[in-house]
Design brief:
With 304 residues, the protein is α+β, with helices and mostly antiparallel strands. Helix content is 17%, strand content 29%. The protein has one domain. The chain starts with 12 loop residues before the first helix and ends in a 7-residue tail after the last strand.
Length: 304
Amino acid sequence: MNNKYHLNKGFTLVELMITLVLSLIITYAIAQVLISSNRSSVTSDGMSQSQETGRFVVSYLASYIREGGLDSTTDNSRSTGAFISCTDFPDLIDNNACITESGGGEDQVGIIAAGIHGDRLAIARVAPPGNLVDCTGSTGYREIDDPVTVPLIPYAVDDFILNTFWVEFDNATNLSSLMCQGFLLDGTDVFGSSPQQAIANGVEAMQLLYGEASDPLPSSSFRNVSRYVPAPLDPAAATPNDVQSWDRVYAVKVAIMTRSLTDVTNNSQLRSYVLANAAPYRMTDEVSRQVFTTTFVINNLPKQ
C-alpha cells in the first residue's frame, strides 16, 4: 500500500509583504479618520466654549445696561444719567469708576499682557426697593481705602449705584475675564465700592460705541440717535468724532471678543478680528475666537 504525503504550502515572502502593506494602509486610513474626527470635535468644543461665553456676557450686560439711568421710584428729586463719563466726572478717574476708551489693535502676545484690554463701561442707576445689589451681586460696599476686613455697609433705597465693566487678563488663570465692580456714587465722586469680581472667563476684549442724538430730547421723548461714536481717548479733550454730550447718549453698541479656554487647532495663520471702531486684533495662535456685537437702548429717559 502506497502512502502519499501531501505537504501544505505556506505563504510566500511576496504574499506576506503584500499583506503587511495592505494592513498598514488600512491602519493608516483608520488612524487618519480618528485623528480628523478628534480634531473636529476639539475645534467644535472650542467654538462652543467661545459662543457660550459670548451669549452669557451679552445677556449679563443687557440686564445692567437697560436699567441704566433708572430714577428714584419714591423720590422725584433723586435722578441720575445712565452713562458716567470721565469727562463729566473727572474725580472718578483715580478710582477707575468712569468710562474710558482704548484703541485696541493687539496681537496674541499683547492680549495676554497685564492690564485692561479694550474700553471700560460705567453706568449708574438709583437703587429701587427690592433691588439693592450691584453688578457683583454684592448688597453693600466698603468706604474707599477701607481694608477688606471691614464689614460691608448695606446699600439703601435711592442710593446711586455705579456699575463698571472691563476686560482684564488674570495671571492666576492665564485667561482674560470680564470684570465688574460696584461703587456708591455720591455727587461727583465715589464714596465706597464692593470688591471687584470676575464674571466670565475667556473674554479677551470689549469695545464700545455710544449712540448720541444731535438734538436735545424732544417733548415726544423720541430718541433721535444720529450717530455712534467712541468716548474721548483724553477725557479733557474730546474731538468732533467723540461723544459731545453724554446727556444725549441713549444707546450703546457693545462688541466683545471671546476665546476658547484651550488651544483647539494647529492652524496658526493670521486672523483679524474687528471690534467697533478699534484697530483690528490680529492673531496667529491656535485659539478659536468669536466676536459678538449688540446694541442696547437705555429704557429710562431723563426727566423733563
